[in-house]
């Protein structure tokens, strides 16, 4: 895999990024280190994490993933310089008081979270520091509609950007990014950066895959014209697009009980647990088989080869999954197959939006 730049930055990343939110929950430290080693051996130079990981989020595992990665880096001198390391400051702690006090995300909160991540990661600098979800109310994580009546924002975007700028000036962060953002949010962050001479957003980490292509409805044009890269997460729809639930739904006997959707009710309550998402996944999975591909190959190749995607974030719980996902890089989708994918989307739209 060649590397490519993220937005208007000198960060060069592989088009596949190792997501780590399973580390510390489904994956113990020993196995996580083995997965990290093998990803590095296969040429992956991009690792993404977050202060709130592992997932599903709970107080006992807050920060565990960063700690596991930090221990891995500390035991391997010289590896840090070969990697692009990304992490995230959590947005407002709605329902998660262990993240921080209060309902907002102040400049002081951003600074404190960055210090905590640096300490757990055992590094002097974070290459890409992202806001995990907006401080303001937005339709995200399965919500469909913006509702101004739910607005609770307390920290203006300009103040958030100034806080991030201080981290960049201090040498603790190289570049900044967003996650779970909207077109307005991206435009406003870029506008404020250009108006006030502050750091410019280089990437946005949003869901993107066969079951959720909401990015294609305005975010694609916005970010293309602004020069902001997409980091696509959940390309396999929390396992729905691997085919593991084609015979048995996550809660039915016969489903793999160690998988996230079967194991965690909190995950099933989100967009991936919708009956429409499972039905859509089964359509795409059958399409893959009809064309001699595995469901995983179809889903990942769709993201890997999209002009919209700079890097696809893969989350795994085993080395076998890692290698399957990396091997899918060689798969090419024909124009005819892409047209069939679009035909299914025309019928189903985005069932896991």
TrEMBL record:
<dbReference type="InterPro" id="IPR023210">
    <property type="entry name" value="NADP_OxRdtase_dom"/>
</dbReference>
<protein>
    <submittedName>
        <fullName>Aldo/keto reductase</fullName>
    </submittedName>
</protein>
<dbReference type="InterPro" id="IPR050523">
    <property type="entry name" value="AKR_Detox_Biosynth"/>
</dbReference>
<keyword id="KW-0560">Oxidoreductase</keyword>
<dbReference type="InterPro" id="IPR036812">
    <property type="entry name" value="NAD(P)_OxRdtase_dom_sf"/>
</dbReference>
<dbReference type="GO" id="GO:0016491">
    <property type="term" value="F:oxidoreductase activity"/>
</dbReference>
<dbReference type="Pfam" id="PF00248">
    <property type="entry name" value="Aldo_ket_red"/>
</dbReference>
<feature type="domain" description="NADP-dependent oxidoreductase">
    <location>
        <begin position="15"/>
        <end position="344"/>
    </location>
</feature>
């Amino acid at each position: 895999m060649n590397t490519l730049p993220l937005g208007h930055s000198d960060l060069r990343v592989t088009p596949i990024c190792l997501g780590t939110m399973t580390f510390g929950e489904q994956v113990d430290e020993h196995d996580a280190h083995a997965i990290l080693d093998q990803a590095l051996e296969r040429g992956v130079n991009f690792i993404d994490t977050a202060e709130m990981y592992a997932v599903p989020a709970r107080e006992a595992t807050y920060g565990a993933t960063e700690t596991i990665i930090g221990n891995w880096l500390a035991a391997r001198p010289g590896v840090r310089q070969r990697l692009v390391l990304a992490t995230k400051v959590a947005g407002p702690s709605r329902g998660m008081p262990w993240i921080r006090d209060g309902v907002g995300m102040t400049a002081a909160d951003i600074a404190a979270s960055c210090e905590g991540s640096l300490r757990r990661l055992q590094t002097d600098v974070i290459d890409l520091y992202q806001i995990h979800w907006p401080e303001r109310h937005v339709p995200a994580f399965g919500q469909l509609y913006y509702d101004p009546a739910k607005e609770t924002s307390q920290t203006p975007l300009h103040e958030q950007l100034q806080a991030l700028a201080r981290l960049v000036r201090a040498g603790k962060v190289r570049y900044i990014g967003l996650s779970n953002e909207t077109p307005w949010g991206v435009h406003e962050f870029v506008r404020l950066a250009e108006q006030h001479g502050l750091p410019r957003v280089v990437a946005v980490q949003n869901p993107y895959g066969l079951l959720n292509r909401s990015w294609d409805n305005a975010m694609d044009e916005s970010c293309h014209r602004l020069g902001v890269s997409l980091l696509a997460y959940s390309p396999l729809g929390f396992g729905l697009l691997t085919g593991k639930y084609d015979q048995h739904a996550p809660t039915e006997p016969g489903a793999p009980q160690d998988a996230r959707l079967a194991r965690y009710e909190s995950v099933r309550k989100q967009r991936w647990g919708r009956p429409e998402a499972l039905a859509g996944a089964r359509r795409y999975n059958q399409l893959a088989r009809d064309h001699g591909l595995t469901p995983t190959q179809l889903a990942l190749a769709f993201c890997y080869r999209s002009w919209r995607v700079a890097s696809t974030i893969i989350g795994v719980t085993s080395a076998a999954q890692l290698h399957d996902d990396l091997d899918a890089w060689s798969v090419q989708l024909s124009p005819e197959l892409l047209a069939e994918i679009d035909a299914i989307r025309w019928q189903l739209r985005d069932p896991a939006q």
